[in-house]
Amino acid sequence: MKYFGFLSFGHYSNGGRHGITAAESLHQAIDLSVAADELGVNGAFFRVHHFAPQAAAPMPLLSAIASRTKAIEVGTGVIDMRYENPLYLAEEAAALDLIADGRTALGVSRGAPEIANKGWESFGYHSEERSGADLARAHYERFLEAIDGRPMAEAAPLHEQYPTQLNPGTPLPVLPHSPGLRSRIWYGAGSNASAVQAARDGVNLMSSTLVFEHGDKPFGDIQAEQLRAYRQAWAEAGHDWTPRVSVSRSIFPLLSERDRGLYGLSASGDQVGHIDSGIATFGRTYAADPSTLIKQLSQDRALAEADTLLLTIPNQLGFEENWSIIRNFAEYVAPALGWEPARPGTLPTGYDIDEVVAD
After folding, report:
1. How many Cα neighbours within 13 Å face the side chain of 61?
2. 150-178 pLDDT per residue, tens
3. Span 55-71, mean pLDDT?
4. In the prediction, which pLDDT does 264 show?
5. Strands of 210-211's sheet, edge to edge?
6. Contact at 8 Å (CB) between 303 and 244?
7. Each residue's pLDDT tens digit, 106-116
8. Dist. CA 58–CA 76, nearest whole Å
9. What is the SS3 assignment for 187?
């Protein structure tokens, strides 16, 4: 691990129930990101869910954060491509990347199980597969082509253009275009197969707190196999740049009686369960004093092989509690794991692919 950021689900109360409102959740996300940026935290990431009282429209939030920070990456973990217009998303992503001076890390994927019944159909999109995987793949491929600057349309006949600018039939890419944006796109992979496909597609890898593989070994070991499969496929594909890899963990440093009261009972071991019609392994929750956390996390093979760690945070508890989690991890745990604080003008890099594959 070289870098760490936080990952928020953007929870809020709905319908006047107790808890923070949508507005409070968004403003707290901005405030937390600004504070984290000043501390040197490397990333502010947000989940994207629809038809639920959680973060749903990331671009306004990420743009607001980017405009008020200097070094921290802004990103998603992840955007559900079943719901997206790929060309409009390409425009938004490029505009965000330009505002952020390249400090973007946009995670996309097929999407997770949700409460809506084929909710993407209400957004105007239709799939052949019940899961929408075919739709997500089509949108994702179109999105990558668009951010690469490939033509998406042609100029109209001269008498239909206003103002008249281009010869009829001139190929038209979506604009704006942000050079290098492709290297800042991540794919949220839940299985070894999807991780390998992400490598072949030439995007970074984002691995969560669950994987669709299981076995008689720790979650970190199972996830490490996914990371290695990704890097091996990357090397075989012959891409000419170094990718990045992130993993997510729930980690609560316990420094006070209040910490122990709030999070002391959160510690748990790995679990195996059913999700999305499959069997998955769910990673443990870490909750301990800093010295114990350092020892435990040093034994997490996937964390050691990933360049970036995303701390999942309970955003619904408010700014102070989440800031305490992030600050305590930064001050008492991260340095022992090899953390490199963010610096203005310096973009994060991945581990050398040849060295990692060789190991």
Report:
1. 29
2. 999 999 999 999 999 999 999 999 999 99
3. 97
4. 86
5. 210-211, 278-282, 271-275
6. no
7. 999 998 888 99
8. 7
9. strand
Q: Quick one: DSSP state of residue 248?
A: E
**Does residue 275 have a pLDDT over 80?**
no
From residue 84, how far is each of 53, 88, 279 by CA, in Å? 19, 8, 28
CB 131 within 8 A of CB 190: no
Rounded Cα gap, residues 190 and 198, in angstroms: 11
Average pLDDT, the chain: 93
Instruction: Tell me whether residue 1 is exposed, middle or buried, using C-beta atoms within 10 angstroms of its C-beta: 0 to 12, 13 to 18, 19 or more.
Output: buried
What confidence tens digit (pLDDT) does each residue in 209-268 have?
A: 766 666 678 888 889 999 999 999 999 999 999 999 999 999 999 999 999 999 987 877
Beta carbons within 10 angstroms of residue 117's beta carbon: 8
Give the whole-angstrom CA distance, residue 55 versus residue 103: 20
Q: Looking at residue 281, what is its pLDDT?
A: 65
Report the 3 state secondary structure along 40-109.
CCCEEEECCCCCCCCCCCHHHHHHHHHHHCCCCEEEEEEEEHHHCCHHHHHHHHHHHHHHCCCCEEEEEE
- pTM of the predicted protein model: 0.94
Please give the structure tokens belonging to residue 316: 């619904």
The tokens describing 338, both together, are: 């090899």
Which token pair is 102? 């390249």
Structure tokens of 306?
A: 């990933």
* Residue appearing with tokens 């006070």: 256
With a CB cutoff of 8 Å and minimum separation 6, the contacts of 291 are none
